[in-house]
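User: Just a sanity check before I run the rest of the batch. Below are the structure tokens for the first item. I only need the designed sequence back.
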């Protein structure tokens, strides 16, 4: 167990420097609000309490710094259900208060959710801004009052209008560069009209064809751009690909008229029978190892050029890399896998890089890291001791014998032990997911990792963040661990803490603390692997419920299912009353086609009383309840905010059936005496709630 006082505080989407106060930095987070430091990271304060919004980027007016703009929508995290964009917001008092601009998106419209990627402001005419989003490129000339799309009809080869990046020329802002998923464009009239750049860049046909893009191993899934005042006409173009650095880095020194390829790894052959290429001279700067074919480009890439040398290039994905010859050769400058005490440690997943006069800054899933010596040594400027609190917590758990101790799992930052007196220790690395504490033995703790990996320690005080001292207790088939959803739910039985239920595509059961497992369902829950919750009735341990979302590729349609339980395959709620021997589909009228199941809870005193929550932004589909085991369902949404997801449930042990729901708008409460939900959040920050626990 490691005292948690260093970096690894949580994900930061991007950051921006105050134009006239050199020690002031603004940090945008995907769910934790906007933060500011005025002393280079020694102390951070929450500038504006807007954590419900995914903040992608902040733009500051260089001539009047109290005027700021915020592009919302967690563009990098949208594959993991990051908050969508509500548009661009504006502040005129340094970020304390925010108002809508003319660019506004309605996340409640089905199929209309949009995410943000980049926001830039004209350096000399700051009333002009441009926003790159999944819905295209938007431009304003009046400080945000009105916006217009400026890329309609210019994407003849892209299958969608998504734009990833936009950059002004460093000295001639009438020239603007922008990038979609596969193509780079240039404007010569400050962003009003655009032309595609060819001259040496890979053509769309080189990247993929319209019909087989998703099957071609080297297709482009994002593009990063970079410019530098050291040579204002230089433009770098970096292509992401799911098979690593296979498309490469390109450079132009004539404003994009002509490009030369600087480096790449050897592309994977289109022929699936061809041998995998291996070129030891060109490292995969997107991967975990120099010569693997892994890539983080669907989630993150950072690109930065030195302001004093156009040949000094920095790239970040898993680690950071540097080239001092214009991108031809590379050396690794940070290592995510090293112990955080190592001076070259930087948290993995680099979302943003900036070279500020020789000092390199990296926004990562663990915070902001800084190096003043070219990456030889790094330090976090967002330590837990600096006041910044931005962890994206998936789940919280506790034990009966230590009421003052909680455990939680945090996105990409591990699992932690938290005492209510403020002491905090890290007990496991990686992504922290579901956790469970044995109610009899407080030192026995289970932690979850991605895709259903489960570990157990019987001595949590001496557990190692590298998983030393843990037993691997994941179910296996043929000697290989089975895989579940990104966040796989598992619970200890309320009747017997030695018993574990873990929900993958099937529900698995262990009677001996994970040493052996049996499959309780064998296909009876359908093919979907998107299990959201498993619950065992405290009043009748033979009654078990499972809530599943439809598989992404099933698009919420119900399949033929299993002969024992008709119409399964697309998700829903399932019940067994005989300990898992047989199963019934009890979804009834639940709105599976309209929203995604997020949680399920059973009354402590009545095995037939169940509540289910739904995510999404559609009104009227937040919470449903049943009193007859799922034969009928009642919509209990009244009183909840219509435009925020419901994420978590907790039920009181009492005769009034008090139930709490965690939403993107805090916590709400209702019971049998109330006909609606009431806010339950006095003193609670304006925060997204993803897990609830009743002591």
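Assistant: Here's the designed sequence for the first item:
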């Amino acid at each position: 167990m490691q005292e948690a006082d260093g970096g690894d505080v949580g994900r930061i989407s991007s950051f921006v420097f105050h134009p006239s106060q050199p020690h002031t930095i603004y940090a945008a987070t995907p769910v934790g609000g906007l933060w500011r430091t005025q002393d280079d990271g020694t102390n951070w304060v929450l500038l504006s309490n807007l954590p419900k919004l995914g903040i992608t980027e902040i733009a500051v007016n260089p001539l009047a710094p109290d005027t700021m703009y915020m592009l919302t929508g967690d563009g990098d995290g949208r594959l993991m259900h990051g908050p969508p964009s509500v548009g661009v917001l504006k502040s005129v008092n340094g970020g304390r208060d925010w108002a809508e601009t003319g660019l506004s998106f309605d996340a409640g419209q089905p199929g209309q959710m949009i995410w943000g990627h980049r926001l830039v402001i004209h350096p000399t005419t700051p009333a002009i801004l441009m926003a790159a989003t999944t819905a295209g490129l938007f431009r304003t000339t009046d400080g945000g009052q009105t916006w217009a799309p400026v890329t309609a009809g210019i994407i003849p080869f892209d299958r969608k209008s998504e734009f990833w990046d936009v950059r002004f020329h460093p000295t001639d802002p009438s020239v603007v560069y922008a990038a979609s998923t596969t193509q780079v464009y240039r404007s010569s009239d400050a962003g009003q009209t655009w032309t595609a750049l060819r001259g040496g860049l890979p053509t769309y046909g080189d990247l993929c064809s319209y019909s087989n893009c998703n099957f071609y191993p080297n297709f482009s899934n994002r593009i990063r751009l970079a410019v530098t005042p050291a040579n204002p006409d230089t433009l770098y173009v970096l292509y992401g690909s799911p098979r690593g650095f296979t498309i490469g880095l390109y450079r132009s020194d004539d404003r994009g008229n002509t490009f030369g390829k600087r480096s790449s790894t050897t592309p994977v052959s289109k022929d699936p029978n061809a041998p995998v290429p291996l070129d030891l001279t060109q490292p995969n700067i997107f991967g975990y190892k120099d010569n693997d074919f892994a890539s983080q480009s669907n989630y993150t890439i950072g690109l930065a050029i030195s302001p004093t040398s156009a040949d000094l290039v920095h790239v970040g994905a898993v680690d950071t890399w540097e080239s001092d010859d214009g991108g031809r050769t590379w050396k690794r400058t940070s290592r995510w896998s090293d112990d955080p005490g190592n001076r070259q440690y930087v948290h993995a997943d680099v979302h943003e890089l900036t070279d500020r006069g020789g000092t390199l800054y990296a926004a990562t899933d663990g915070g902001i890291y800084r190096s003043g010596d070219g990456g030889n040594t790094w330090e976090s400027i967002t330590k837990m001791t600096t006041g910044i609190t931005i962890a994206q917590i998936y789940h919280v758990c506790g034990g009966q014998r230590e009421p003052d101790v909680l455990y939680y799992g945090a996105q990409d930052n591990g699992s932690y032990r938290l005492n209510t007196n403020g002491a905090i220790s890290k007990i496991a690395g990686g992504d922290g997911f579901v956790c469970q504490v044995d109610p009899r033995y407080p030192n026995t703790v289970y932690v979850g990792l991605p895709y259903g990996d489960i570990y157990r320690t019987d001595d949590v005080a001496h557990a190692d963040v590298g998983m030393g001292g843990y037993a691997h207790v994941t179910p296996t088939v043929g000697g290989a661990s089975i895989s579940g959803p990104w966040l796989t739910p598992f619970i200890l039985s309320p009747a017997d803490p030695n018993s574990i239920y873990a929900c993958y595509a099937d529900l698995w059961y262990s009677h001996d603390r994970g040493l052996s497992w049996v499959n309780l369902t064998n296909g009876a829950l359908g093919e979907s692997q998107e299990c959201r919750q498993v619950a065992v009735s405290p009043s009748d341990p033979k009654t078990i419920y499972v809530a599943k979302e439809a598989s992404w590729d099933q698009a919420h349609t119900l399949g033929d299912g299993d002969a024992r339980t008709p119409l399964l395959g697309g998700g829903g709620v399932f019940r067994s009353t005989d300990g898992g021997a047989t199963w019934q589909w009890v979804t009834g009228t639940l709105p599976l086609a309209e929203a995604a199941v997020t949680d399920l809870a059973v009354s402590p005193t009545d095995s037939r009383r169940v509540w289910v929550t739904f995510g999404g932004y559609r009104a009227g589909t937040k919470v449903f309840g049943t009193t007859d085991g799922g034969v009928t369902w009642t919509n209990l949404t009244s009183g909840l905010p219509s435009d925020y997801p419901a994420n978590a449930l907790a039920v009181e042990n009492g005769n009034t059936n008090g139930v709490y729901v965690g939403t993107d708008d805090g916590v709400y409460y209702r019971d049998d005496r109330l006909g609606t939900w009431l806010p339950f959040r006095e003193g609670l920050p304006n925060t997204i709630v993803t897990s609830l626990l009743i002591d």
